[in-house]
Amino acid sequence: MAQAAYRLVCKVQQYDWGKVGKDSTVAQFAASGDASFKLDEASPYAELWMGTHPKAPSSITLADGLSMPLADWIKGNRWALTDPIADKFSDKLPFLFKVLSINKALSIQAHPNKALAEELHAKDPAHYADDNHKPEMAIALTPFEGMCGFRPVDDIAKHMTAYPEFAAAVGQQQAQALIEVAGGAEADAKGPLKQCFAGLMTQGAAVVKEQLAALVARVEQISADKQTPLEALLIRLNTQYPGGDVGCFCIFFLNVVNLVPGEALFLGPNEPHAYLFGDCVECMATSDNVVRAGLTPKFKDVDYLVEMLTYRAEGAEEQVERGVVDKDTPTRTVYRTPVPEFDIARMSVPAGSSTALTAVAGPSIVIVTAGSGTAELIQGSPEPLTTGQVLFVPAGGQPTVAAGEAEVVVHVAFAEAS
What is the DSSP string of 125-163? Predict the structure, then answer.
């Protein structure tokens, strides 16, 4: 009898921005899905990688109990992708699925489109290890805070007036040019906005440090209960990245977006963003290409970042995705993306009930994000299923999930043949 799904053992990344010990959702999930995982209460656990990326490849557990790299199994079982997906993506899984647990802000960054990724990889393979683009989507599992896309120009101009230290760090001439076009057509503001962002990103370190210190000192004179949320964020980022990190000023350029569980952000190529706090699932094209410019001790590629961005300026609400309820399965919400590599679904199984997961014409990776029960990986043979466990579902597979005393929630990354 064909097997509808297979268990995966996935790897953890311990970056210093991750939540620590059992406070990390990543650590909790890893402990559930990998019997060999040993949790250290003093260590950060930032990301759980589910897929075939060579930096942290998952292993698939077969019916006989043996395991092998998922990428190798897929090579020998092309049908699991479908021919159209296998042809399009060279017999490889086209996406990388992750869970993130964020305690400290990640870098101000953007991901290159395909053409720029190829250019960067050819020019600097040490920092850009592959030639693929990296569109991505994050869906909040807990209250989640991030920065995404440029604010409306009017907002940025108001911040330059309210916080003259920000204008000084950008450069007075550039700041004034943006203030003068505020309220006009977006097309007229793109050039001045780019000049302002470039002015900040290329500003001398001494000027940035001096102006940031002055602004932080001024804001700290305001009692915590009277500070605006943006001012409180400034203090928090300056504490996390002390010494004059230019990324602290980016809160005045970029939308600060607060998601509730189930809300999402789609991060297209050449759009600036940074995750600030919370837990999420995230899916992307299989790549690790990141162009950084602030809130990081890692390599910064400021010139490329400034040139690659779209400088589209929209409000925070325009950044938020909420998915569409599946008309055939009301317990399933689908988050579609404009790229062929992946979409994501969230599906719930009410307590005490069972359901077959929706079949798709392509490969899926499923992670249980809440609840416990059983799953029929082979029809008629239920196995225990708990929060944090991960499954690979070949094209057309429909494992049946039964919930115990509480609702089971799964998030599913999938590619679908068109």
Answer: TTT--------EEEEESSSEEEEEEEPPHHHHHHHHHH-
